[in-house]
Amino acid sequence: MDWNELYNLGLGLFEKATAFFDEALEMKPDPQACYDRGVALGNSGRWEEAIACYDKTLAIKPDFHLAWNNRGNAMNNLGLFEEALASCDKALKIKPGFHLASYNRGVALDNLGRFEEAIASCDKALEIRPDFHEAWYNRGLALGNLGRFEEAVASYDKALKIKPDFHEAWLNRGFALGNLGLFEEAVASYDKALKIKRYSHEAWYNRGVTLSNLGRFEEAIASYDKTLEIKPDLHEAWYNRGVALGNLGRFEEAIADYDKALEFKPDLHEAWNNRGVALGNLGRWEDAITSYDKALEFKPDLHEAWNNRGVALGNLGRWEEAITSYDKALEIKPDYHEAWYNRGNALASLGRLEEALASYDKALEFKPDLHAAFYNKACCYGLQSQIDPAIQNLQQAINLNPDTYRELAKTDSGFDSIRSHTRFQALIQGHN
User: Which pTM value belongs to this model?
Assistant: First the structure.
């Protein structure tokens, strides 16, 4: 008998149990029978009907703490977290040491974003029942939501010591480890989850993200492929697969993946922006601009898209438009050194050298080791035959990246007016 057959058999048994309870309740409105009917309905995932049963139970026996707790659990499953909390509080008022009600209360609080209270509620459950693995697990979720990832890992470890095959704990442990930058350990945790539940698309997906963070892009793509076998409409997997392909220089394939992501989520501005980057890498600048415009349609304050749009416009020789695009990026993020640098390049291309120098200086204010800005400043001064600042800035560029800038300076027309100067020759020959 396979899993589906067993599952359907179980559902059939719950249906049969519900029918028996209905018959019993016709004979006598007994609170226990009504409660048991609610349990059977809950086990079938019929939460609303289960709540109706618990309400009938409580109308007959208002101090039935199990019914209040199960009602809270059903409310949690329906996403009615305030009502779930109120139900669990009723159970705990009747039976203060009831660990299941403290646990379900914690689940509701976590979903309401009241994470500190959720932890306290899980702790209450664990005081009574230290081997309650679900409470350790939900405590980990709340800690993770607070960014306390080391404590979250410790909590998941407690859950896994009690129940080693708890795949959700392995999964979320991996997520917490990833947030701590412990990517190898995170991959190992996802692998544990997948050994238990091979068709967990969440584990395959997060494993892919983690492998990308390790720069293991081929393996990441394989992991995303597994994700998409299970859940073909997961736009995040298509998007991140595209990112991995882009990092491998496989831009056509990356664009196809971004298109798949956008098929499922047309307003995914990250995909539009990255699609533009891939198109730019293929030299398809007009198409890239169209893609950036789509990104900005959905997220007008996406400074990266304004900057990238400027780069594409510059590559088409549309320098004034490029400067306008960089200015937009800098309105949103004034310390965005890439935009200041690219703006400087556009101004230099228009021969507006003083403005270009000011733009490079802003880039260096925010990123003092930006060697390309020093080099381009040297070119601007060289074009103006200003030997001292040209040499000073070229020296800075060479200090940061000797081989590249010595070689470039040998033939760069920006230095033609000072090329014969002994200080310039000494610098590019490495005699300084």
Answer: 0.85
